From TrEMBL, chain A:
This is Ras-related protein. GO terms for molecular function: GTP binding; GTPase activity. Residues 47-72 are annotated as: Disordered. PANTHER family: PTHR47978. Residues 49-60 have a biased composition (Polar residues). InterPro entries: P-loop_NTPase, Small_GTP-bd, Small_GTPase. It comes from Musa troglodytarum (fe'i banana). It comes from the Eukaryota. It holds the Pfam family Ras. Keywords: Nucleotide-binding, Signal.
Amino acid sequence: MPIPFHSLRLLLTALDLAHTTRCRPGRAKPSGLVLWDSSSVELGRPASSLPQMGCSSSLPDRNAGRLDGLNSENSMATDSKNIRVKLVLLGDSGVGKSCIVLRFVRGQFDPTSKVTVGASFLSQTLALEDSTIVKFEIWDTAGQERYASLAPLYYRGAAVAVVVYDITSQETFKKAQYWVKELQKHASPGIIMALVGNKGDLHEKRAVSSQDAMEYAEKNGMFFIETSAKTANNINQLFQEIAKRLPRASS
Amino acid sequence: MDSDDSVTDPEAHRPDPSLDAEATVEQMGSLTLGEAGDAAGAERPVGNGFLPADFCAVAGEIEVVEEGSPVSGDLAGPSSLGGPGACRERSGRGDALPSPSSSGYAGERGSSGGSSEIEDADDRETMLDDWSSGKRHPDEDDGSVSWRKRKKHFFILSNSGKPIYSRYGDEHKLAGFSATLQAIISFVENSGDRLKFIRAGKHQVVFLVKVPIYLVCISCTEEPHEALKRQLELIYGQMLLILTKSVNRCFEKNPKYDMTPLLRGTDAVFSSLIHAFSWNPATFLNAYTCLPLSYSTRQAASAILQDVADSGVLFALLMCKNKVVSLVGTQKASLHPDDMLLLSNFIMSSESFRTSESFSPICLPRYNPMVFLYAYVHFLDVDTYLTLLTTSSDSFYHLKDCRIRIETVLVKSNVLSEVQRSMLDGGLRVEDLPLDSSLRSRSLTTPELSSSQTGIGGPSGLWHFMYRSIYLDQYVSSEFSSPISSSSQQKRLFRAYQKLYASMHDNGTGPHKTQFRRDEDFVLLCWITQDFELYAAFDPLADKALSIKTCNRVCQWVRDLENEIFLFGASPFSW
């Protein structure tokens, strides 16, 4: 489905107008992965000195410091076994992005559709077998067209992008491909991308074959998984797979 | 008959305003509407300005059509306003050819029996808060009988006639109907004129032109057209809140641009706003209301919000449902009551805000319709939410920190529990209006105001009031007392207030100072001074002199309680 770029651009222009200071691309650090490091904890930094990429966790020194400054457990969270990672979910509206997140974070599934506005922020920690603890900071973005122009706000500096489509809708699969292309162009290099076919419980209505999706994912260096937020099938596996692929801090 | 009930009260500008009961009764005596239930008079629209012309378009070419006159083929005829889209027979058969003489929109003639069912259903749904689930009846279109019987339609369309939003039915199926509305508007515009509204029997069609957007309301609710126009303005504002005015540029490049995808998923927002048009006084009073709290509690909330605002937050707003707990803005920035109404409607009607903290672009149309601000929204409990607005798209983590700080302080200082308690306790009750001794002695000698009657309402038959402080842009309204406990009675009172407001602010005949009006449902009393506007409803049998005295006491009571029911110290409103 072609996206009417002119309209998105215009909305983006409005956004830009709202900025008091514009972001220069050069200032964004490419790495989205944040390792908690005691040397990076800086308390009491004035808010006005927040970097442009405040919406991301791409700048470990300040963001980590600020957050840790408010959490008393920060001292124990400074070893290299703790990984904090920014993850963004993208995809057409109604494919179940919020449902995946809520299933993962709260173990809940709410069949009534709740349209996400802008983006919701949730976090969840996952302990791996090698005793690494991964804290996901998840940006669950709205799928509506009017928010498409705002996506960079949320995926800038992300270490992981989860692109979701609905296996019962070819259209959402096309939209997913649009997001993959957009991420390849504009996201941090080295971003880990996952292609997720959701609503696996509705396989009798399947419109996108696993084979096609798998081939597409392989071609684009993504890993592919089919999930069902409703039955919780593969939801934890999705995040465990992501966690396994995260680069580890060298000693 | 029409400039019936409004009198100028020369006393109103005294430094300590109080209505002089005797003098005002004298003045009002000759001006009061038929007291013994003059039904015809009471049911007339209050708007004094628009008679004798029912159809008040300024266009010279459009003929004035009186209610009930024969249907004409002219564009302005009461029944042809729908043109091809609406000129179908009531049987609702498919694509009938445009037929100027067919019965008109929603066929108000000779169908009262048949139409009542759906109109009742319409009401019932409103009461059941069905609006929250998004669009109602998406399968309908202008060919459906049920669609045409809806009491109140709202449409947004582009000036090329493309549908953008419809309260009922699928926008895309309403393309023909939209094109017809566009044709009517542009027909008048082409003659260098502007269409304000059309009256057609019971129906009013009200237009609002915000090039390249047109907004239309078709209603048979007997609300004054000024009120409907204001509702269209709010709907337009709600659209801007979601998209900003820069959406206009889409139409500059492509006049045929289809805007519906940009508003996808916002049906619940508009439904809830339209629902507010029949219960929330803020939709016509141009004011917001505060949750009653002790002065120190509100001060505690304001102090922590101020702290945060000083760190680069444009506005910090703590609200409980539609009521403000505290509001703080940076210097010189002020939040318009309309923006607060639209913002709180947007937040409360979007379920996703309740799930987790959010960071979303929103536009405050009265603050700056061209740009997005960024709103950090977090629900502290089921009804209480904190909104932090900033101009910087990168402030999420900062605002998150601010919220954590605010929440900690609010919990520690018991503000949150006080807020919950106040929600449970409710607002001012007319039963609690302090008695003054002179009135008590008098009411003892007045048989119809014996204690058995004051048991169902406040003193002297006071049922309800709303007090709007002009300088603060805030209003306070009492809880509904037992005589108006049912939702249909409350809606009737709401509509009566709405009419009262419109007639008091009518540019043609106003502004007025006082109005006393009696019909079979209520005695309504309105009193406007430089400082406040008071709207009060009494038992229909209430004594006029006592009502006026009671209004004075309500004003005194509100002044005595002002520290608890109003928010002071919010930056001065200067726009």
